[in-house]
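May I ask for an example protein's residues together with how it folds?

___
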Amino acid sequence: MPNDQSTPGIVAGRLSADQIAKNFGDLHPPLDAHEARVAADRCYFCHDAPCMTACPTSIDIPLFIRQIATGTAEAAAKTIFAQNILGGMCARVCPTETLCEEACVRNEAECEPVQIGRLQRFATDTLMAKGGHPFTRAAATGKRVAVVGAGPAGLACAHRLAMKGHDVTIFDGRKKGGGLNEFGIAAYKAPGNFAQAELDWLLGIGGITVEYGKRLGDGLSLDDLQKGHDAVFLGIGLAGVNALAVSGSHDGLASAVDWISALRQSKGKADVAVGRDVVVIGGGMTAIDAAVQAKLLGAETVTIAYRRDKAAMAASEFEQDLATSKGVRILYNAAPKSVGKEGITLARTSTKGGKLVETGETLTLPADQILRAIGQTLEGAPGVLAIEGGKIAVDATGRTSVAGVWAGGDCATGGEDLTVTAVAEGRDAAEDIHTSLTGGA
């Protein structure tokens, strides 16, 4: 928790409030109108649009960039929102460097892609600042749909269903919505209160009711939801956190997910306690986000320990470079072995015959705070649903093994665990739900 200073060495206020505010400013500052026009002019407007193919939500990128270039940013935003209603947040957090921008042909011509992500933010911010909502609801169908989870998948599903005239009720176990966007991403990627502002804006479509403090298995059952609704969509995410299987004990060992969530909910962040010497265990985006933010809060040393080599690390090259640019050290081929008062002992590893093995060499790092970011697990899924690989099994349309129940986002089998992928899955499930409820109309 933000104010927990019971562990020696883990304290709040290592830096002044002003310095922390500066450290947590926009990772990619927004473009102004002139900058956006200049950036848009670099687009070749490719007829085959490899950037569009690389986008999980299939936004017509050449079209929206052309609209920006011609001075119609609001039209560009509508093009974006038609495919991705959370286009504002995705513009901030989507790993464009490995998706649309990596596919940009400007990489071959100039070794630098069109700034698609920043252009998307310019367009969506422009329209959202005007107020109102770009879409209207269709005539009421009389159908009721329950959406469990107010994260990216659930919100995208609910919005598309509401737009088609269905009445939607969203249930979420927390006291506020947004899911990963509100609680799980680095604060410097979406500063301010953008996640909640976007949520309020999305609900402007009408036809959506949100009930907080309700989660599956705790006063909410799938059977009751099915009885009271014509369809159910599950976007419950991955609530469980994997344990760190090491010997020994350490008072400063904590979940990186919980620590990031506490940081996200702190208004000034100066009240969030951080260690002097921090070690983060993991190799994904959560590990990077935790490590960078620990450094931004004033930790003297921050080390990411990842058990495999650099090429196997789930975090992108851009994110790894971002971490090292902030003073974070990344140790590859270093697996946690034990913890104790002296810190954490890591075993050096290598890959032989396709298997990860220890080399026999170890090193011990001083650490008053150890954050584990080694993956999350599914919790709360009803036992009647088929599970595959630790997630709810779904087909290409998001249908689960139970008739009338769909699922999408991190909790379901499918693509990468990204905000933009969750949006696509929620949107596509909504289309299939609509087809099912209206008999193909």
